[in-house]
Amino acid sequence: MTVTPRDTLRTARELMAENRINQLPVVRRGRLVGIVTDRDLRDAYPSSVQVYPGKKVDAFADAHTVEEAMTFSVVSVAAEAAVEEAASLLRRHRIGALPVVDKGKLVGILTRSDILDYLLSQRL
């Protein structure tokens, strides 16, 4: 599941909500160009101090793009990387997910939960 830089904030927010995920890789022609997280979206929206009725919030989300909120310097991992390397990157950068790339193309995303599930499966 991905978005493009030109998708609206509403599109990203709805995809995350519908699929119960916290981040989306941002791709252009199959190549990873960034990542947008639930935190990026929260930070992009007007503050709660301002009064924004539902329709105004939706209008805001439709008027702004993922590119305006995404993180450009995304930490990723190569498809052939060891699980330990991925876990180390997640911990070192204090992030919840790593896009997985092969020759510059996005091939997946690895989350903390994926690593925990893998580690638990190895103990059985």
Q: CATH top level of the largest domain?
A: Alpha Beta
Task: Report low-confidence residues grouped into runs of 5 or more.
Answer: none
Please tell me the CATH architecture of the largest domain by its name: Roll
- The helix/strand series, from N terminus to C terminus, equals HEEHHEHEEH
> Looking at this structure, what is the CATH superfamily of the largest domain?
CBS-domain
* Rg, nearest Å: 16 Å
How many helical elements?
5
| CATH domain fold name of the largest domain | CBS-domain
Residue share in helices?
40-55%
**Total beta strands:** 5
Overall SS class? alpha+beta
Report the end-to-end length measured between terminal Cα atoms: 30 Å
Whole-number count of domains: 2
Spatial order of strands in the largest sheet: 3-4-5
Shape: elongated
What does the average pLDDT come to?
A: 89
Largest sheet: 3 strands, mixed
Compact summary:
The chain is α+β, with helices and mostly antiparallel strands and 124 residues long.
Tell me what the structure shows.
The chain folds into two domains: about 1-75, CBS-domain; about 75-124, CBS-domain, CATH 3.10.580. It is of the alpha+beta class and about 120 residues long. The model has no long low-confidence stretch (mean pLDDT about 90). The strands form two sheets. The chain has a three-stranded mixed β-sheet with strand order 3-4-5. Strands 1-2 form a two-stranded antiparallel ribbon. The chain has helices at about 10-20, 40-45, 55-65, 85-95, 110-124, and strands at about 25-30, 30-35, 75-80, 95-100, 105-110. The chain has five helices and five strands, in the order αββααβαββα.
